[in-house]
Specification:
Elements lengths: L1 H37 L4 E5 L2 E8 L4 E5 L6 H7 L1 H5 L3 E5 L15 H15 L4 E6 L2 H11 L4 E7 L16 H11 L2 H10 L1 H7 L5 H5 L3 H13 L7 H9 L14 E6 L6 H11 L4 E5 L10 H16 L7
Parallel strand pairs: 3-4, 3-5, 5-6, 6-7, 7-8
Antiparallel strand pairs: 1-2, 2-4
Helix pairs in contact: 4-5, 7-8
Length: 325
């Protein structure tokens, strides 16, 4: 009996120590994520829908970068960093419900597009090229439709859109809604997932085949790991993530787009953004389309080629002397 109690006590002690070590690792990861957010030189402007946070990087012709799900001003700057290196000034706002930009009652793509106009007015910019990445394509499209005079060019990277003819997403049940909202607000649960199930998170959240990442070089593998970690703290992005999850962006008639448009995707994107990109290219007069055979939702091993193409597209449209020319 004494031996049994001793073994039980020893196992309990090991479990407690293990849990403590695990939680310490989580706390360190969370502090790192919070410091990463705070490291940006973030500004905030007042708009018709409330405060809007944004950050900037680079010098040159302005490009408005609209981030995707799980993002914020930090994700936008990271995503468009290669353009800053190519001689552009990246302006990256947080969409509604993401860091620094509270979610108003009207979270539609149209409402988001209108506050981008307020941001440009505050910055004294008449016109910019606009990039919408993933779920950010919705408000980028709305901006081009509603404010064509402010949009010099529209670039949509892996556009996550509802395409006519495809069945709508089934609405959440009340129980599902409570569970999803609880999960989105749990930094600990999200950290556990990216720490112990990185491949599964790459597939489910980043919509990219883990095998494609495993076959890539160390630099690309490190970039994917940074993308996973960059969603922390997920609690600071919960309202925006929920809005992206349930939709409610209203109808976007892409046939009304009258600005130069480029749509980019990959065949093996698990979010099937290739279908969205093709739909946009078919509906928008003169739109250009690039669909890579592989690369997933985060364009593995396609970045250099893709951003060279985007820079050349913007230069050709606006006549900008960038890209080392």
């Amino acid at each position: 009996m004494k031996i049994t109690r001793w073994v039980f006590a020893a196992l309990l002690a090991v479990a407690v120590i293990g849990a403590g070590t695990l939680y310490a690792r989580y706390q360190a990861a969370l502090v790192e994520a919070q410091q990463r957010l705070a490291a940006f030189a973030v500004e905030q402007v007042q708009t018709r829908s409330g405060p809007l946070a944004y950050a900037e990087a680079g010098d040159g012709p302005p490009v408005l970068m609209i981030h995707g799900s799980g993002g914020g001003y930090d994700q936008g700057l990271s995503m468009a960093g290669p353009l800053a290196e190519r001689g552009y000034k990246i302006i990256s706002p947080s969409r509604f419900g993401y860091p620094g930009s509270p979610a108003p009652e009207d979270r539609s793509a149209n409402a988001q597009a209108d506050v981008f106009v307020d941001l440009l007015d505050a910055l004294g910019l008449d016109q910019v090229a606009v990039i919408g990445g993933s779920a950010g394509a919705r408000s980028a499209l709305a901006f081009a439709i509603r404010h064509p005079e402010r949009c010099a060019a529209l670039i949509l990277i892996v556009p996550a859109l509802d395409v006519p003819g495809f069945p709508p997403v089934e609405p959440w049940s009340p129980l599902q809604e409570r569970l999803v909202k609880a999960a989105l607000r749990s930094d600990f649960l999200f950290w556990l997932a990216i720490e112990f199930m990185p491949d599964r998170m790459t597939r489910l959240v980043l919509a990219t085949d883990p095998a494609l990442v495993a076959a890539a070089g160390p630099a690309e593998q490190a970039r994917v790991a940074r993308i996973r970690r960059s969603i922390l703290p997920v609690s600071a992005r919960a309202e925006g993530l929920w809005a992206d999850t349930v939709g409610g962006y209203g109808d976007l008639d892409v046939r009304r787009i009258a600005v130069p448009t480029l749509a980019i995707s990959a065949e093996d994107d698990f979010f099937d953004t290739a279908t969205s990109a093709r739909h946009i290219a078919a509906m928008v007069d003169g739109a250009e389309l690039i669909v890579y055979p592989d690369g997933g939702h985060i364009w593995i091993d396609r970045g250099e080629e893709m951003f060279d193409t985007i820079a050349a597209f913007i230069d050709r449209i606006a006549g900008n002397p960038t890209n080392g020319q």
